[in-house]
Amino acid sequence: MSALIRTEPGSLVLRASAGVSGRVHTRTILGCAVMLLLTGAVTVLALMLGSVRYSPAEVLQALFSDAPGTAELFVVQWRLPRAVAAVVFGAALGAAGAIFQSLTRNPLGSPDIIGFTAGASAGGVAVVALVGSGYAVVAGGALLGGFVVAVLVMLLSRGGGAGGFRLIIVGLGLSAMLASLESWFILTADLDIAQVAAVWGVGSLNGIGFEHSGPALVLSLLALAGSGLLGRRLGLLDLGDDLSAGLGVPPSGTRVAGVAAGVVLVALVTAATGPIAFVALAAPHVGRWIARSAGASLGPAALAGALILASADLLAQHAVPGHSLPVGVVTVAVGGLYLITLLIRENRKGTL
Amino acid sequence: MGYEQRIVGEDLSLDIPGGEFTVIIGPNACGKSTLLRSLARLLKPRAGTVLLDGSDIHRLRAREVAARLGLLPQSAIVPAGISVFDLVRRGRYPHQSILSRWSQEDEDSVRRALASTDLTALADRPVDELSGGQRQRAWAAMALAQDSQILLLDEPTTYLDVSHQISLLDLFAELHEEGRTVVAVLHDINHAARYATHLVVMAEGRVVAQGTPRDVLTTELLDRVFDIEATIIEDPVNGGPHVITRHRGRLAAADSTLRKVTP
Ligand SMILES: Nc1ncnc2c1ncn2[C@@H]1O[C@H](COP(=O)(O)OP(=O)(O)OP(=O)(O)O)[C@@H](O)[C@H]1O
Ligand SMILES: [Mg+2]
């Protein structure tokens, strides 16, 4: 196999045998590389810090070769699952956000805002309260909740155009209703179950281990790979229904696949961690800004999501000494500020 | 053919001859765009079929149709931040696959499309920062990059200045001479008369006349379809029919000044 990489002003062109070819903006590659490096750095930092501190060298030694038993225990057994989960789940949330923002043609059209996250969360809490807290059943409940809300949102905001104001208002309304439904489940459940459900309801990576999060991680990676195939179709839909159809991609197919992929991604993550707000909202914007890309840009959004959630979780673990906060608290606090600035900016532009 | 609740045209039978430059004219809302969208497989006719080279277009795969038939819609969404080059590049989608995303052929087509629409210098500019006419040319370039045998163009010249109108129409005429089938909706009757080898006139969802511009364009038809009073003369420069409309308001005004000047 021979490959040829050629630079053009502002972009890289790849031509390889067997018809493999591509063209990407140099700045997008650089931006993605920067996000990858930062995520790597944050992850190493997360493995270093804690009740026992290790140097970067010790961390790498624990990861890639033999290390003293305690280092292995702290770094690989305890801290690694959490760090990996932050990266993978962050990427999944970022990609889901990019998909929904592209489908709704609205920078606010992320699953947190239009109610899918709340739906997945309410579905999860209902299952925890009524059935049990195994990952499979919670994931099932979250998926179901997400899809029910997706259908409801689509039905209620019909006629207002796929994008825009109506969708957001309907989503906000549904989210509020779902939050009260969730409280009701928690209040009516037995105390110990209610406690599990309530903790889950904040969104946290505390105490996550590979035995629990393993399936969620694998499924999220699969769903991420699957939604990667959607990227170019979403890019065509950005140009309008007629152009997309004219180029051989029926818009309804892209919409159905996009909603399905987005809801699955959100539900998989939500079932494992509880609802983590604002990552899906902010990641696509941050990704587009760092990679200086346009349109759906699933890759940059996923990388930004990973970086955001990994950083937020690092903050959650170490911001208050001796206390490990749920990461959902951090993302809500930081994300709330972000949402306000975004609302003001969009309002000025008149896109809302 | 029609939309969910509205029937736009009925009993419409039209044969777009291969290798011709067909121009469709007709008043606003008579169903030209709807016809074009039906021809491009975007709308399924309520009754009847659209045949592409003899086979029902709705039985062909969307992607296959797209490789043979390109559509420039009347309106499209301008995505934020996308450069002209990246936009035109998307026209290559029907020819690409998951692995092959930028072959030499793709590159040649895109560069040719940019050059022939006079956009090479603007290739790196974001589309949403272009003027209406430059934008229109970018969409046209995208349709050209699709390299399809059949081109359906819905008002490709509407926002363009006179020189770009002519150069784009000349380009389509050239493509037609190279053997492609071009179908364009135009509002300028004289452009239609000059460039069409086959002229279709629509009114209220029906085809009311078709044939060569010389046969089709009559003062009686223009009065009936567009409600205009016109004189048709022989185009002294290009040959063929040339329509001169009589401006009722201007005539009256001219009359009154005449009277003032010569009491
Ligand atoms: N998406 C739609 N849904 C319902 N009705 C539509 C839709 N698009 C167009 N129509 C209606 O169909 C009729 C024909 O519209 P069409 O767009 O085909 O007209 P046109 O001949 O292209 O007009 P113009 O010269 O203004 O572009 C009009 O009455 C219009 O209101
Ligand atoms: Mg039209």
List its traits:
heterodimer; A: 352 residues; mainly alpha; ABC transporter involved in vitamin B12 uptake, BtuC; globular; B: 263 residues; alpha/beta; Rossmann fold; two-stranded antiparallel ribbon; binds adenosine-5'-triphosphate; binds magnesium ion
Helix and strand layout, with pairings?
The complex is a heterodimer of chains A (352) and B (263).
Chain A: E1 3-8, E2 11-16, E3 21-25, H1 26-48, H2 56-64, H3 69-104, H4 116-130, H5 135-156, H6 165-188, H7 191-200, H8 210-228, H9 231-237, H10 241-246, H11 251-273, H12 279-291, H13 298-318, H14 327-349
Chain B: E1 21-25, H1 32-39, E2 51-52, E3 55-56, H2 62-68, E4 69-72, H3 84-90, H4 104-116, H5 132-145, E5 150-154, H6 162-177, E6 181-185, H7 189-195, E7 198-203, E8 206-211, H8 213-216, H9 219-226, E9 230-234, E10 241-245, H10 248-261
Parallel strand pairs in B: 1-6, 1-7, 4-5, 5-6
Antiparallel strand pairs in B: 2-3, 7-8, 9-10
Helix pairs in contact in B: 3-5, 4-5
Bound molecules: adenosine-5'-triphosphate and magnesium ion.
